[in-house]
Sequence to fold (937 residues):
Amino acid sequence: MAVTHKHRSITEVPALQEPAVADGELTGSDISPEQAELVYTQAPAALGTGLVVALLVTAGLWNVAEHLPLLVWLGVQCMQTVLRTVLVLLYRFASPAARAANQYWIHWYLAGTLVAGISWGCLGLFLDFSWPVGHQVLIFMGLAGIMAGAISSYAAFMPVYIAFLVPAVLIPSQSLLVQSSQTANAMGLMMMVYSGALLVIAYNYNRNICRSLLLRHENIGLIRQMSVANGSLQNEIRERQQAEYERNRDRELFTNGPVTVFRWRAEQGWPIEYASKTIAQFGYDGDELVRTRYLFADMIVNSDLKRVEQGKFDNPDGRYLSAGIDYRIIRPDGETRWVYDYTIPVRSKNGEITHYAGYLLDITDRKQAEFDLLREKERAQITLHSIADAVISTDVNGQVEYLNPAAEQLTGWDGSIARGLPIGRIFSLFDDDSRTSVEDPVMQSLQSGKSFISTRDCILNRNDGSRLSIQYSMSPIMSAGDVPLGVVLIFHDVTENRSMARQLTYQAAHDPLTGLINRAEFEKRLDFALESAHSEGAHHVLCFMDIDQFKLVNDTCCHAAGDDLLKDIAGLLQGCLRDSDILGRLGSDEFGVLLKNCTLNGAQEIAAKMLSMLKATRFESCDQTFEISASIGVATIDTGSSSVTEVMKAADLACYAAKDAGRSGIHIYQASDRDLARRHDEMQWVNRLKDAINEDRLVLYCQDIVPVSQGKTCVRHFEVLVRMRDEEGQLIMPDRFLPAAENYNMITAVDRWVVEHSFAWYSGHDERVLMSINLSGKSVTDPAFLEFIRDKLVAYRINAEDICFEITETAAIANLEMAAAFMHELRRLGCRFALDDFGSGLSSFAYLRNLPVNYLKIDGSFVRNIDTDQVNAAMVTAINQLGVVMGIETIAEFVENDDIMNILADIGVDYAQGYGVARPGPLADTHGSIHLATSRS
Fold:
């Protein structure tokens, strides 16, 4: 490759010209910014020196000159110095561009210098020839020094120095010349001559500075020209280096690169005349091929030879043309390689083709990649034909290019017919809920270049008019430049899945037995009603119904009979309701009725109608007939209702109240209802108590029981009490949570906790004690609880004689037979028993003969005011006498003071318990530790 370069000599660069400046004209606009820069640079030193000299002069003249004029002169000096200093600072803080662009910087400084010259000239007005010679000399020396020193500061810009020198000389000179003294006149003339000399010196100084600045400008221009010339030379060097690099690269390409250059003769078989060394990559030696006049046709695979001849040389008009073609050649070792051949015919002067020249490029790897891509394409086609999902591809205009068999089946279109049609005709969608047409998602994807996935099921209109529920996704086919080329649409049939989902949704919201909505769905409907009450001021009513004696049907017959009864009741209740009302099954035998847009009176009528319908029904099963009744709780839903939970709780509490009132009735919830408020409070305590037991937040306390008579000795005796700590660690008394435990069947769980933890404390205690533990009536009548105590006595190795169980008189009488059996069994093991609150339910003492009681605990209501109430004293005396007769020791509760203690001693009561004896304290502080046994029953 021939490369030509343009050469340029350094001598061709224009000669650098020195600026033409006439002699005596050393200023110009080109150097004025530099002159200003010099003036401002020297200004701080000049200002400081001038102020120091002014202060020295003032001090020197203080004893001979008048003070006031002298101070005024000094004040003017200070003021002009400050103002000029501010100007210098503004110049320093300004940017270089702002300094160069603003021509007034030097003018402002010129004005300041003129003021300074005037003020220094006024110093000569102070001169008085009657002063001592030294003071006269001080003034002249000060003026002379200031004027001479100003040359270095101001002569860089001659007008500035002249503005300072002229007033500084003329004012004192004129003052001296007008005097009648020859000495004064001579001194005035001397000052004029001195100023002229200074002016000549300043002029020469300024001339040298201007020459230096102009020379600097000339040097800068010369440097710039040399930089341009050097840049041109560097560019030329780079161009030559680039040309050399390209020539070497081309040489390397055609000698050692992947391209093989050749020339053949235009004869049969194409004898080789030249082949570059790179033909060695095909296993041949170029020189050997030329020497033996090897035929290039022998290098071509036989099956490709005819195609090469036709593709490269045969043409309709019989002329040979340049052509490029892919074919295979054979290496000497038999391996075949794919090449790209570009051939150019070489003609003689008369137009006859004598040779062919061109190059070969090995493209085996590219061909292999093409084959692999073709196989992948075929495999993809087979995959698309075999997958279950439907696939449609479109072009950039949204016209169908391909449908796989699944897409043909789902759309009802034949692929050959659908190809080329708009996708909107093949893939027509409707929203399943609104039944409105869905905007073409394919065109959205093409316009936005983004993928889309359907967020809900859509309806596909098939070609035969039928419809399917589908879900789809689509992605644009993007070019390398992120330009959409088409869209791939994938969808599948979800008709069956949707049907199953609807069925599951229905089952999730409905009771499988009665077909009514279940509790979760009912609460959703209730929430909607509550929202309408808040937003629209609507008024609704909730009825909570509990079937009376439903358990009797289940237990007497069977659960199938109970199921039949519930289905019959559901049908009966639906017949009593309006179309807008909602009926749901909330639990085993509980139903909820939401009366929408109904007044309280209207709700009472509907509730009464439902009760009447149930009462009139007779249910027959297992050869028995049952009367059906129910209890209904009614709660209103209005703007004052806070939440679904509160409304449900209110109706539930009202239903409990209806049951307590005798069943088969209706109770309307009132916020002021004390009984419902009590139940509401107890229900809250139930959950808190459950959490406290699970989190081990119950705490054991103990209160001592001491002998009344000081002479009586026994082991330490105390009663175990239970407390609860809330979530913040505050202590809660048992009267807050035990009633809820009694009413909601949790008291036995509390008794179990107390017994186990009391036994655990006992097992870690060294000294012998007598420990009294309270038991509820429900625990006493629970056979499993008796087994629990037996197991714990063994697990903790308890001496049964040290355990005393306290049972209230009321609980013992309520189920005397089971209580007696419980007590006898534990007495057989050695445990003791105390009858608590004795006398509070007194009706007869006969039952005491059947109970193995060791202690009678006299009810505290008799003991509390025994010192003031004779009737209570008589009751305590009678109970104690009964105990003496039956051989049972007595314990008085609520002993509050010494007076009561003394009366009890006179009566003969054995033991006392109360705040006057000892206050309750934590059991853990009673010299013992609690270690729960690892074994559990």
